[in-house]
Automatic annotation (TrEMBL):
CDD domains: FN3. InterPro entries: FN3_dom, FN3_sf, Ig-like_fold, Type-I_Cytokine_Rcpt. Residues 19-116, 121-205 form the Fibronectin type-III domain. The keyword Protein transport does not apply. The keyword Signal applies. It comes from Micrurus corallinus. Transmembrane segments: none annotated. This is Fibronectin type-III domain-containing protein. One of its GO terms (cellular component) is external side of plasma membrane. One of its GO terms (molecular function) is cytokine binding.
Amino acid sequence: MIRVSDSASAWKSAGWAGTPQEVACVSISSTTIRVSWVPPPAQSRNGVITQYSITYQAVEGEDSTKHVVEGIGHEHSSWEISNLEKWTEYKVWVRAHTDVGPGPESIPVFVRTDEDVPSAPPRKVEVESVNSTAIRVSWKSPISNKQHGQIRGYQVTYVKMENNEPVGPHVIKDVMVAESQETIIGGLLPETTYSVSIAAYTTKG
């Protein structure tokens, strides 16, 4: 039986590569990260490094399965991984390979992809009349996996309607997220129909 303290010796006696060093991850977009590393120390390579592999897994979000990128040439010390979930934290490991097979995984590194614009509108939008010249608009935040960042505020847009067509300018009112998810729009014309829409925004828009 191999004791925990003997695990490094077991890898070495089998001829597997050592562990990549200084593994780091940076987010370069809302769906792409760059992983970098330093090859295992020469004394622990136990042969010639033939390739690297990267394992990554979402800590949160819709897809929590482990994914593996294999066949990364031995000459590489960084690699970009794309098609990730937006504004999602990932756990990443790197392995070096020799002809014998893969060595031990590096210590996991955590990285979060960048924010992006929300891909869904606010929910449960309701509009009610307050008086002859004002309305109250209320709503709920977009579903969490479509927010793609921290919601900073909302834009409430309204326009006068005649014969189902917009008439005049579209007026935009900003509502900061710190406020309650409702707003009063005043100064409207009595007995007039208005169209109201709401959009959430992050730092990306």
